[in-house]
Amino acid sequence: MRQQQMTRLIHSLPQLTHHQRQQLARSLQALLDHSQAIAVVETHNCAPRACPHCSNSLLVKNGSANGLQRFKCRQCARTFNALTGTPLARLHLRDKWMGQAQALGEGLSLNQVAQRLGVAQSTAFRWRHRFLACPKSVQARQLVGIAEADESYFLASCKGHRGLLRRPRRRGGKALAGCKGSEYTPVLMARDRAGATANLIVQTNMAVSVQAALKPLLAPDTILCTDGSITLASAARALGVQHQAVNVSRGNRVRGPWHVQNVNAYVSRLRGWMQRFKGVATKYLDSYLGWFRMLDRSGPMGPQPAQVLEAAMGNQGVTSIR
């Protein structure tokens, strides 16, 4: 549009009714969100190094489609764009992606997301797990210095599953067995003093499972602090790392530099955050754990929508993680 036409358009805005101005504002915001999402995607992978189909590096530009630059592989002759091979490939309504990313940053429920974005609740559900497909696998690969570990238990849930063999619980519910019964899923929480965090879902709370989960995390010179758990003590002994136990049950929360307050505070924040969902299906528990890790790494202000969108495409450079 030429500048003269733009000027006439701006001068005609006062003639619009209040409802028409609201429609115009929504349309402009959708266009801005779409262009911002495209800019984030293009910045994330502006010059791909290899073909996602055959891994060949001989690539040429091949026009554009829907605002995204396309590339063609000279080896297999297939075309692709920056979203190919990511969880967001072929996902429609790009003008709502930034809104979805902002909703994830705010930790909104599905009903809140559906109302804000004007989509069906089933769409909000699918988008949530498409956006969390990459963040759920991002966690600390190794803990250094003083590391703290504790076991946490989440109520096993078949939320959304048809044909239950028991009476359904309501809004999260409570288990019939004790805290460590078969109705709970054990999760090993490990965190060092620098903030690097790993949440590992283990099949059982047996020492063998815990040892296998901790083995790639703990370097030989790492000092492991626990609350005196026999399982964690046995795993530390088998791995050959120094172990310092603090008997929290007897009121001994700190013994010099040895304590588990760091990991306990993290678990407390995690549980408080998850209460809004009124129970999480066990098969999606790793997604929610990864979601909270992404939020926790971003600090009290939370991640920006562009950072969440980059994380959804697999770019973890926006967060500090070892």
Could you walk me through the main structural features you see in this protein, from its secondary elements to its overall organization?
37% of the residues lie in helices and 16% in strands. It starts with a helix and ends in a 10-residue tail after the last helix. The longest helix is centred in the first third of the chain and has 27 residues. The protein has a domain of 130 residues: Nucleotidyltransferase, domain 5, CATH 3.30.420. It is globular, with a radius of gyration of 24 Å. A hairpin with a 5-residue loop joins strand 2 and strand 3. It has a 5-stranded mixed sheet with strand order 6-5-4-7-8, with helices on both faces. It has a 3-stranded antiparallel sheet with strand order 1-2-3, covered by helices on one side. Strands 9-10 form a two-stranded antiparallel sheet. With 322 residues, the protein is α+β, with helices and mostly antiparallel strands. Helix 3 crosses helix 10 and helix 4 packs across helix 5.
Write the layout of secondary structure elements.
Elements: H1 3-11, H2 18-44, E1 59-65, E2 68-73, E3 79-80, H3 97-106, H4 110-117, H5 121-131, E4 146-155, E5 184-192, E6 197-201, H6 207-214, E7 223-226, H7 230-239, E8 242-245, E9 254-255, E10 258-259, H8 261-274, H9 285-297, H10 305-312
Parallel strand pairs: 4-7, 7-8
Antiparallel strand pairs: 1-2, 2-3, 4-5, 5-6, 9-10
